[in-house]
Amino acid sequence: MISAVKEQIQQRFAALAQRDFARLYASYHPQAPFRAQFPVEADYLVFAAEVLGRMEVIETGIGASRISTQGVEIICVLHFSLDGDSQRLFELALFMESPAGWRYHSAQKLTGEDYSGPFFGLDFSNFDQQPVKIRF
Q: How far is CA 93 from CA 7, 37, 53, 84, in A?
């Protein structure tokens, strides 16, 4: 189960790097909050081409995982450049099972302002202790 979820994360990162936004869209769970924002794939593809198309993936990483009552949670990092500005985004990604297999539901995110240490030092406590846990 966890290896299948890690493979899904790797595929999502690859789709982002390759600008394969249709594959990225297909990786979302049908009940993901993202799907409420973009219920029509064509609308997302326009947005992604305009916004994500400006992104260059520099490095990605997959860390610790745990099974929760909702599915599988995995810590990951995306280091990217957007319009020349380098950023790191850490996620506690939630994957839930669907008829099509494990799919990305949502994530609690931390920016470089929230966590400035090395990726290998990040663990679940960094996410669990956040006063406001917003998943999107």
A: 13, 18, 22, 26
